[in-house]
Each structure stands twice: as C-alpha cells, then as structure tokens.
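Researcher: Batch entry, complex prediction.
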Amino acid sequence: MSSENITQAEIDAIFPKVAAMMADALGCDVEKIKPNASLINDLGAESIDFLDIVFRLERGFKVKIPRGKIVEEARGNLSESEFESGGVLSGAGAARLKVFLSEVPADRFKIPLKSADIPRLFTTETFCKLVIRQQRAAARPA
Amino acid sequence: MDGHFRAFSFVDRITRPGLSVRGLYQVPPSIAEFPISLAAEACGQLAAWTAMATLDFKLRPVAGIAPVIELPGSIRPGQTLELEAEIESLDADAVAYSGIAKVAGTLVLRLQHCVGPMVPLEDYDDPSAVKQRFELLCGAGATPGAFPGVPPLALDYTGGEPGKSLRAILRVPAAADFFADHFPRRPVFPGTLFMHKVLELAARVTDDILTPARHTAWVARSVNDSKIRAFMPPGESLEFEARLAKQDAGSLTIHVGARKETKVTGHSKIIFHAEERA
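Model: Structure tokens for the complex:
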C-alpha cells in the first residue's frame, strides 16, 4: 500500500494517540509533538527512543511493526543496489524516498543523502503512516 | 574472573525454560539488604537467559526501557524469589518482556513491557562460558549465596529546594565486585543499581513533604518510563536531579534524571503513595 493512499483524515484520527505515546517515550510535553516535527532534530530522539516508540505503537495499536520497516517500505520496488550504493542514496532512491516520505518538507532532503541519515527525516506523521499501513496489512485477508 | 556469575547474577535455577520462563533465586541470608531494584534485575536476567539461548548465544540484551515497574512488596535477605518472565517479542534488535517476582507466593515486583536492546554477546562476555552457565541453570542449578551484597554507592548531595528538588552526584566506582560479572569483557554500571540510587534520591525528596495524615509515610510503589540512554562505565561521575512533578492528596510523582555533562544517561518517574507506617 503506497503512502499516497493514506488520507489526512486517517492520520488525524490516530495522531493524538501517537503524539501521546511519543511524548511518554521522549519524556516531553505532548504539545511539543507536532505532525511535522523531526524526531531527531526537533525532539532529540535517539536510537533507543525509536525502539521505545515502535514498541509503544505496537502495544497501543495492536499491530506488529518489523524493525527497519520504514526503510524497507521506502525502497518499494527498487533493489537495495538501485536504492543506495556505498551508504549513499542513488538518484532513483532519493526520488523514491521523497515520494514515500511525502510528509517531510522538501528542504529537509539534503542531496547526496546518506542511508544512515534517513531516520533524521522521520516525523511524527511518518509514524502515523507506518501504523496505518500496518493496520491495513493486518486487516487484509491472508 | 572470580566474580563471574557470582557478583551480579540473580538466577540460581531455571525451572522452566522457554518463552514463558520460570526461575528461582535465593537471596543470601548473610547480606545486609536486597534492594527491590535487584528483583527487577533478577526478572530481567531470567528474560535475558531465554533471549541469549534463543539467539544461540550470539547476542545479549542490556538494560534499556522499562515503561512500568510496580513495587508492591519488599524483600528480605534469606528469602527466595520466584521469578517469571513472559517474552513478548524477540529478534536481533531487542527482547520485549514482562515479568514478576514473588516471595512465598506473594507478589513483590511486576515489570511491564520492558525492552532490552541487543548487543553482541562476545563483546561483553565469553559466549561458551555463558552457554555452560545456562545449561547449569537449566539442570542442577547454581549454588545459592554467591552475591556479596550491594557495595557502598554514596550519593553526594549538592543542592536543591526542600520538598521540591534535590541534586546529587553519584561516582560510579572505578572498581567493584559486580563489574566482574556485569560484564567481564566490558564493565558497565548496572541499570538496576542506577534505579536503586534513583529511588534513594526520590525518597530523600519526599522526606521534606508532609503526608496527608498522621502515621503515614511516602512509599515508592511504581517506577515509570525508565530509560537507560547510555552505558555508564567504571569511574564515571553522574549528576542526578530529582524534581517533584505532581502532588495530590495521596500520591506524589517525582521525576529523576541523570546526566554526564550534557548527555542524559537515564531517567525515571517515581510514584509514591501515602501509606500507614508498617
């Protein structure tokens, strides 16, 4: 399911719950959790916070979020070598990522973009979309 | 290696291996005290044994995230902890688990949805020795009584506002018995000893806060949203700060954080209830 199919209404419906979980994980006031806030640059999240957030979302929304799911889904149909080479995203990879992370303001994509810096782009809305995708996946017939 | 599996090991026997793991630990009768935080360590170690065995002793979890630790009871030297851990998820990134500790069937501690990030076991310990120990624990069990007790870990109080906040320095010892066990190849100050000092500092803040009724005292009943953000090596100095965050008629919430220079190393929220003095 591509991110383009996720509606703003779907995001708005789960945002308050996602924001509350993020505030608990990051130890900050929920008012600081804005939809387009960068978790790392704006909210000071570290790798252990991402782990914390993912587990809280799994419990709170009763979904399973495989680790590394965002980057894996961002790659879409591109192979790993088409997506990135030597730790740097290819042109096709960066273009694909911009579409996938459509919620991230364009000026935050610094080209060339290192794969390791992809999490710096993640916003609260990125995680809302992740939850929605997993909810849809769970609802799909096996 | 004298202290390996002795100086900071809190599972004597695994009575039921697997994802619903059960174990036992006898608190040595000779030690002066057994802080409740070490019951959390025992539950965490039980879950860690399952995690390491499942991952073929290539990875091990370390202290990370504890959303809720309930503290309904206390433990005295000589008592036996009945330990249970339920593994909620387990992969190469982390183990998630909940657990309880009981004494004679009575609940003394409950962990909810803890997460231990994985690190390469061989960086921290000898994998073959760890595997042998697991086999021993699953078989005849280890000889109880090896834990020598909690070493002196004094907080140096540096300031604050009575009843509202308190600051202190903890100097992690450069050498201590527990480092031989936690961990032999990379000594790290245990997260549960960190929690022990967090509880101590928070309790000191409550000393200056009146309880709502006579003959009552503030008792720590829950540690929430705990996170260890950085390894604490031997010899490191940590600046602790405890702050009263919320107070109502019968309970208090105290936030405690620790940092080394600008880096936050860990934090927790401690919930106290006013209860009749025992």
